[in-house]
Amino acid sequence: MKSKLLIMFGRKVQKIRKEQGLSQEELGHKADLHRTYIGMIERAEKNITLLNIQKIALALDVSISDLLNFADLFKVERT
């Protein structure tokens, strides 16, 4: 069973990456990580290290705390 923390982290990376219009390959290049590794992170298949979290944060131009803040993943629109 996948860790909820890894699932939420992967969703957050994917959300920011898509907001910036980056492909997994482009993010991987910017972060000096393989594109398949980015995909595995987004699918919660890898237990990412702090060093790689830092690489992704720098590549996305966000802070590590931004990557670990999952509140925006739970926002519900009210009409």
Summed up, the domain count is 1
Q: Identify the overall geometry.
A: globular
Biggest sheet overview:
none
CATH architecture: Orthogonal Bundle
**DSSP, total strands:** 0
- Individual helix count: 5
Give the distance, in angstroms, between the N- and C-terminal Cα atoms.
35 Å
Quote the CATH topology.
434 Repressor (Amino-terminal Domain)
How does the helix and strand content classify structurally? mainly alpha
Mean pLDDT across residues: 94
> In sequence order, what are the helices and strands, one letter per element?
HHHHH
State the share of residues found in helices, binned by percent.
55-70%
Strand percent estimate: under 5%
The radius of gyration computed from the alpha-carbon positions, rounded to a whole number of angstroms, is: 12 Å
CATH-assigned homologous superfamily: lambda repressor-like DNA-binding domains
User: What's the CATH first level?
Assistant: Mainly Alpha
Give the uncertain stretches in residue-range form: none
What can you tell me about this protein's structure?
By secondary structure, the protein is mainly alpha-helical. The protein has a single domain, classed as 434 Repressor (Amino-terminal Domain). Helix content is 59%, strand content 0%. It is built from five helices and no strands. Helix 2 packs across helix 3 (35-42) and helix 2 crosses helix 4. The longest helix has 16 residues, at 4-19.
